[in-house]
Write a structure and sequence with these properties.
Length: 119
């Protein structure tokens, strides 16, 4: 059995196998094993930056919750179900920033996600 700490609710749970995607039985967060093993080692900076992105053929507005050197957290004012490992392209001013979904959860009618930059 493997002891797995949830990166969201910080509760731990046990599993006898390690799949690519892990679901926390306590809070419902789905995250990748790779993301758990490659946790951020630099500090987060709380900053709100408006973003736009397309997902499954629909345009969404988001705002960053925090940023770090290798990634950022976002809040979307709609409930969405991203898949871990999805690549999202964010329009930030005149630039496109490609990022991989590391974790995602819906809370109070909003979608929150942690993303790792890929470019």
């Amino acid at each position: 059995m493997i002891r797995i700490p949830c990166p969201s609710c910080t509760d731990t749970f046990f599993s006898d196998k390690v799949d690519n995607l892990i679901g926390c039985p306590h809070c419902g967060l789905t995250f990748s094993w790779e993301a758990l093993m490659n946790r951020r080692r630099e500090a987060r900076r709380k900053i709100e930056i408006p973003l736009e992105f397309d997902y499954q053929g629909k345009q969404y507005q988001a705002v960053t919750v925090d940023t770090s050197l290798r990634g950022f957290g976002i809040k979307v004012m709609d409930e969405l179900s991203f898949n871990a490992e999805d690549i999202l392209n964010f329009k930030v001013e005149d630039d496109l920033v490609a990022s991989r979904v590391v974790w995602q959860k819906n809370l109070s009618g909003c979608a929150y996600a942690g993303l790792q930059r890929v470019n």
